[in-house]
């Protein structure tokens, strides 16, 4: 497989900047491209734009050159793997291995299996060996891609500090040497804490750490811990002992889960777990009641904890873009302090019905949910404070009439949607035109509703039309009342009985 912006973002970016080698010329082939001229660049995709935003040094020619040299072997391997052809699917590989096991049974096989082995077509055996070999080649290539992605991160950091690619290295000895230095740094931090020194901020980012020792959880006065861009595969449960911790950065590691003890960090205000391999967030994360910023982007989250919004009433920033979310839990609507919600590049099928309760929301990015995002709920118009909205690259056909109530909207992206309401010519005129168009539709909808209610009220208050029987009954009642006054009650009762018999 070729590296993609999702699987190997840095490697994909670097390889896409390499000039393509000209094909072998034939008499009818097009003339070779002048290598002195810059190769044509395709436009940056959304993922690459986001990557360059996080790693602005990628725009520097010297940095990009150093990174390009570091992955020359990947470029060669990619060309070789392209010549080999696509990777066989797992069913083909399993069938080939089963056939080879039968063919290689040899002396260990019983009589029946030996007979079957003799009947095997030599061409089938050779083809099976080729399938297995091709699968191994692709597997080795994928391992090379993973290693190259890590190497590029290392080279980028070294290049940004002014160090040459040779210093960045990438050999096993060099990496182990750096890991040893990191261990010493961790020991120094722990020793300072044990000696009673004030340790409020610990920065262990970019140090190739494979393990975060549990004693870190005993640094009681720690306020900020940064272990971003390491190789951590897990966070110790002891992290819950950092009761005063306000900032925890775990970005760009190999984490597949977070400990439940993270819910004990009641003073935590900033949590960054972006760029890992998380599939779920622990339910206890809602116990971090002081949390103001949560970044869980660039993971593999399929859902968020059901009750995540019940207690995170102070959360102002929620970033969950570039995941696999199909929906947002309704409890998100209880995050009344939320100012920014970024959920682009997911698989969202819609928004919670009560999304309009997020009255403080100013920035909302729902772009690139593609065919899954088709409409917006009626409460969307209650987001009165919304200033920036990105709905691009979805399948929305009509904005709800309540959209006209978003009077503070300043930036709006609706491109790459099959919109009919508002029409394309209105969208092309910009956010002001869209606001005016939808505001008119909203005013018309309100006027129609008021007219409908007025008509219903008028019908309810108008005199009811009488039937002949009802008219005669009222007449008899009036006549009875008059008779009581004239001839007395006893006489009237006799007449009433006679009249009732007539009906």
TrEMBL record:
Record SMART domains: LRR_BAC (SM00364), LRR_TYP (SM00369)
Keywords associated with the record: Coiled coil, Leucine-rich repeat, Repeat
Domain of life of the native organism: Eukaryota
Region entry Disordered, spans: 21-47
One GO BP: intracellular signal transduction
Pfam families linked: LRR_8
Coiled-coil annotated spans: 110-158
Gene3D superfamilies with a match to the protein in the record: Ribonuclease Inhibitor (3.80.10.10)
UniProt entry tagged with the keyword Repeat: yes
Function: Leucine-rich repeat protein that likely mediates protein interactions, possibly in the context of signal transduction.
Family, similarity comment: Belongs to the SHOC2 family.
Protein name listed in UniProt: Plant intracellular Ras-group-related LRR protein 3
């Amino acid at each position: 497989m070729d590296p993609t912006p999702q699987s190997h973002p840095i490697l994909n970016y670097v390889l896409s900047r390499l000039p393509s080698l000209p094909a072998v010329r034939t008499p009818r082939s097009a003339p070779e491209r002048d290598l002195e001229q810059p190769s044509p660049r395709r436009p940056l995709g959304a993922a690459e734009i986001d990557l360059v935003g996080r790693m602005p040094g990628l725009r520097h020619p010297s940095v990009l050159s150093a990174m390009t040299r570091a992955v020359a072997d990947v470029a060669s391997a990619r060309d070789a793997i392209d010549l080999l052809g696509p990777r066989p699917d797992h069913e083909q590989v399993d069938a080939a291995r089963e056939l080879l096991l039968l063919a290689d049974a040899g002396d260990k096989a019983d009589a029946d299996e030996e007979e079957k082995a003799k009947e095997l077509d030599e061409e089938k055996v050779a083809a099976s060996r080729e399938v297995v070999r091709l699968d191994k080649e692709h597997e080795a290539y994928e391992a090379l891609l993973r290693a190259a992605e890590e190497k590029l991160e290392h080279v980028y950091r070294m290049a940004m500090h002014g160090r040459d690619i040779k210093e960045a290295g990438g050999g096993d000895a060099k990496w182990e040497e750096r890991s040893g230095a990191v261990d010493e740094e961790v020991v120094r931090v722990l020793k300072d804490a044990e000696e009673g020194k004030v340790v409020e901020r610990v920065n262990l980012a970019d140090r190739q750490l494979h393990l975060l020792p549990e004693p870190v959880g005993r640094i009681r006065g720690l306020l900020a811990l940064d272990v971003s861009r390491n190789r951590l595969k897990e966070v110790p449960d002891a992290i819950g002992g950092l009761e005063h911790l306000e900032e925890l950065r775990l970005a760009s590691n190999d984490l597949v889960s977070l400990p439940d003890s993270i819910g004990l960090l009641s003073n935590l205000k900033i949590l960054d777990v972006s760029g890992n391999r998380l599939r779920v967030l622990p339910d206890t994360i809602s116990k971090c009641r002081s949390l103001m910023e949560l970044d869980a982007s660039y993971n593999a989250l399929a859902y968020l904890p059901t009750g995540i919004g019940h207690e995170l009433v102070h959360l102002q920033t929620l970033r969950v873009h570039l995941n696999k979310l199909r929906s947002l839990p309704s409890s998100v609507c209880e995050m009344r302090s939320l100012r920014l919600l970024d959920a682009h590049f997911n698989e969202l099928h819609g928004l919670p019905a009560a999304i309009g309760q997020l009255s403080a929301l100013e920035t909302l990015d729902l772009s690139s949910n593609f065919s899954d995002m088709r409409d917006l709920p009626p409460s969307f118009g209650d987001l009165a404070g919304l200033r920036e909205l990105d709905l691009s690259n979805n399948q929305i056909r009509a904005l709800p009439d309540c959209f006209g109530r978003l009077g503070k909207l300043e930036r709006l992206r609706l491109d790459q949607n099959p919109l009919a309401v508002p029409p394309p010519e209105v969208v092309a005129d910009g956010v002001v035109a869209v606001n005016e168009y939808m505001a008119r539709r909203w005013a018309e909808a309100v006027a129609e509703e008021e007219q409908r209610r007025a008509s219903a009220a008028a019908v309810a208050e108008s005199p009811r039309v009488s039937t002949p029987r009802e008219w005669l009954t009222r007449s008899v009642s009036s006549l009875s009342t008059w008779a009581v006054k004239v001839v007395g009650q006893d006489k009237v009762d006799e007449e009433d009985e006679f009249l009732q018999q007539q009906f």
